[in-house]
């Protein structure tokens, strides 16, 4: 999808339904000499619902600023929320980890191969274990130890490190609960991987509980983080078949592969601006 | 798996672990001129656990009675529970339905093609809707209307109809909760299909709740019925991918296909004596 | 998706890429007081490729004729091929079968529940086996016996029965190869189910060949019929895990479930105008 | 599955069917004070077929030598082929790679976490690209350049490096065809990953051909290498859903994840002695 002379851009829009909105937006882009490459849209109700749209288009670099200015005007008329991004400007992703490395390594591997085209300005951890491997990829690693008493300070420190440096955060098996204060800084911009098929097994030790319940499939769920534990908008889920021979430990091992697959997929979609949030749900424009 | 002169039989065994148990049982069968065709076994712990075994074997029809007698002796020495079945004697399955026909029709279709080799002596329903279609297959249909007040009587009537006629019961989207008294008559012999990926969405209206939660996969679960609603031993589960375009009604429609697939699979395994129950879990010898 | 006073319609378009085409079409619909509900589009190359679009919209019944007339004009300017359908006018589907009933019964079941909203004016078969069951649903059944020598006559007879009565044909495990002459009457309007994961096992006896090759998954493929056997545009495929315990006969039994699932899905998409053909490939607007 | 005082061992057996074989073997093990933990068996025909068995058992380290000696005798009576392995003695795996790193990295990651409990004495490549990353894990890397003319020499060099050092070889996207001479040294001991769902797209460029054919699922196949290209016994296969939006390049990227999953699974089973080869097919005792 490389463009020689132009700039590939993506526009996300949410607004109340209104007749003619699609042609209004496509006309707007045509007038700004933008060539639409891909268009996706969804509505909760074609008459009275909420409207969601994603448009990918080619546009000359010099006209994108003008387009952005004019969008402000258009948005007012339609009570739109909108987000414009360009491929030129890569998104910046912070990764939070604890001790487990599988999700981290999957993200790093997909970053290295450019399958997930992001920058990774830093990794933050409450443990030192993964410092060496992360730094071997030239990525700064910040070890911020954390106890119950120091949590507030630790989060403050993290916020300072992140400030102005990142566009979103991935919790790659980060085993700490973030405070509402922290989360409020990154609304719908923190992606967590939960090691169960939510809403089954919300909370701690899902694999042990899955083992005790005798389920025949285990799963993983990637979701945006909200103040309600494991209740945020789900981006992606997948499952893996297991059987009675699996111990709780075997579930954990097998589950790692679902976790990294699901998290990497969710991060890809987020980076490609394919996710829109509507209340506690997501619209994914695949 | 047809045998010309013999009788294909299946033996299921559960007992506490004890060294040499496998060779004891295989010797026992060899001594009874049984030719082992398939053997499966599982243990919760090779030293102190519970041992489970399934053996499929060919044996002359005239020796099976002697084999059965001798098994009683063997079982005492090992504190075994055991179940012996022969292919000659087909299992008898009652089906309970309400108004939805998809699970019922799937079972009937697989019964007609002999993919599920059972007899169906009767179908019982709290509604009359499916009477005609069931009877068109030559299967007796009993309509037992049921209100809160008449539930006890209705169950009593059903028990009388079933008595001595069936080996197990399938609730093919039967929308009534059975009483502990009824269930006690068919311990681990009632299979239910729940229209969610348990333990997510226990109870009523799982599709509406799945819709509201914004999950990306919906599922179905076949399980043995116990007194705890939707908490019985899980036999089979499966899922289907959905997306933001699905309404709650669409989930219901898409879910029907997972339900019938999952229920039919569970019934197949039950009929082929491939399921052993251990507490609240199942061992499936596929 | 019911509309009270209006008519829900779907427009499919294929044409060479041209800047502004999306806004042209959306403007055209807006001018005809059509309210766009869903829009999907695809391009093989945003500058020099072929452009494909599907638009679902609400429109007053009385304006649809005018819209259709004006589309002819628009189409000329853009060298468009286009297809307009309305929900009011259900598609008419003929089913061809031989002896196996599983795909037929799946289609009939989904037709009865209105999951696949079509009319079925007739079923044609080279055998009499399924006459009774088909007629029990009130669907006319034509038994046209067929030998090598009578094939031409038989096809001629079928064409006469179909003439003016059906919009597309489904080969639901019809075990005869249609002549190029027959196919030319229903270009991209005949859907076949092949019982393998194409292009593996093109031709006869795919399950036996899958068994001999020792594959670990079997599959089924629904495709439009062309003159090249099993080479037509693929609409849908799916697979099922098997193992070394499966005999060739077991593969056949297990495969039936994939076949009916895959065929029913392909027919659904065709009926909902979600399939566009591009050379030997399909675009599916899910 | 750790054993404190004993040694966990696995016995694989292939022989012609003979009545009583299972009890013979289980008795044999009981006499050698071996505690059977898991038993799996398969037969191509219970009377005249080939019999396959896998037994996992605990045994004292000092008795295993005697057991091995006595097995030679038993094997004669039954025309058995057999393989005995112990968990104490880890298998040694060589990896062959070219330039692509995804399969290599997956194996290394699962080796590091001990999910695949092997030793990796060396990696051999016809390119130097992956030298640094492999050596960073402390694994020796041998770069053996290879042209058409030097192939024989190169293979000879590789054979010398491997001699006495490895138990099996994994071709982790090694883009060279091995000679029959090389293969004869490692009969059923070379695992290859082919980037298609075999037997579809045998040979070169499967993703381009999958793209041109318009398939709706792409796959990967792990198999033992024989002299017939891509025709060896299949160990594992899996697929991934794609759609019309995928370019040939996208298929390649998406396919990488199936490839590493399928290859890692096949290697796991091989390492755990869960694979038996029968002609051109495999029996997998999961």
From TrEMBL, chains A, B, C, D:
SUPFAM superfamilies in the cross-refs: ACT-like, Formyltransferase
Reaction(s) the record says it catalyses: (6R)-10-formyltetrahydrofolate + H2O = (6S)-5,6,7,8-tetrahydrofolate + formate + H(+)
Record-annotated ACT domain positions: 10-92
Annotated GO MF terms: formyltetrahydrofolate deformylase activity
Active site: 230
InterPro entries for this protein: ACT-like_dom_sf, ACT_dom, Formyl-FH4-Hydrolase_C, Formyl_transf_N, Formyl_transf_N_sf, PurU, PurU_ACT
Pathway membership, UniProt: Purine metabolism; IMP biosynthesis via de novo pathway; formate from 10-formyl-5,6,7,8-tetrahydrofolate: step 1/1
EC category: hydrolase
GO biological process: 'de novo' IMP biosynthetic process; one-carbon metabolic process
Keywords, sorted A to Z: Hydrolase, One-carbon metabolism, Purine biosynthesis
EC number: 3.5.1.10
Role, per record: Catalyzes the hydrolysis of 10-formyltetrahydrofolate (formyl-FH4) to formate and tetrahydrofolate (FH4).
Family: Belongs to the PurU family.
Protein's recorded name: Formyltetrahydrofolate deformylase
């Amino acid at each position: 999808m490389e463009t020689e002379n132009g700039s590939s851009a993506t526009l996300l829009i949410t607004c109340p339904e209104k007749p003619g909105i699609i042609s209004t937006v496509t006309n707007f882009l045509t007038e700004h000499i933008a060539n639409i490459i891909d268009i996706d849209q969804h509505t909760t109700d074609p008459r009275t619902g909420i409207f969601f749209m994603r448009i990918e288009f080619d546009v000359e670099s010099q006209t994108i600023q003008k387009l952005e200015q004019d969008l402000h005007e258009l948005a007012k008329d339609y009570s739109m929320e909108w987000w414009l991004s360009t491929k030129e400007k890569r998104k910046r992703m912070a990764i939070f980890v604890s001790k487990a490395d599988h999700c981290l390594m999957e993200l790093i591997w997909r970053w290295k191969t450019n399958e997930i085209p992001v920058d990774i300005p830093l990794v933050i951890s409450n443990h030192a274990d993964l410092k060496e491997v992360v730094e071997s990829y030239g990525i700064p690693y910040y070890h911020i130890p954390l106890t119950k008493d120091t949590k507030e300070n630790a989060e403050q420190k993290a916020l300072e490190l992140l400030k102005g440096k990142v566009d979103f955060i991935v919790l790659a098996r980060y085993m700490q609960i973030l405070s509402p204060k922290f989360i409020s800084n990154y609304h719908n911009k923190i992606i967590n991987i939960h090691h169960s098929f939510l809403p089954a097994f919300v909370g701690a030790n899902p694999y042990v509980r899955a083992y005790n319940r005798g389920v025949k499939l285990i799963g993983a769920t990637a979701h945006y983080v909200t103040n309600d534990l494991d209740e945020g908008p789900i981006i992606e889920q997948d499952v893996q078949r297991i059987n009675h021979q699996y111990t709780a430990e075997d579930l954990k091992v097998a589950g790692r592969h679902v976790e990294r697959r699901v998290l990497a997929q969710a991060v890809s979609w987020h980076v490609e601006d394919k996710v829109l949030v509507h209340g506690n749900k997501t619209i994914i424009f695949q």
